[in-house]
Amino acid sequence: MNxxxxxxxxxxxxxxDHDIVFLVDNWYALRRKLPTLTLVSFASAGHGPxxxxxxxxxxxxxxxxxx
Length: 67
Fold this sequence. Notes:
- By secondary structure, the protein is of the alpha+beta class.
- It is 45% helix and 18% strand.
- It has one domain.
- Strands 1-2 form a two-stranded parallel ribbon.
- Helix 2 links the parallel strand 1 and strand 2.
- The chain starts with a helix and ends with a helix.
């Protein structure tokens, strides 16, 4: 965990509010410990929100990588 706290690498997480594999609450808890984490949560989506919201996910990824 100390390595995560000290990283300067930007991290993007595309998540979903109905993901039963990687609960969004866990990512919010991790956000407090990982300062470079950017969270994007898709509403009414399950595991693999990039498959349900392909265009929106692509736009978030493009914006993140161009920053």
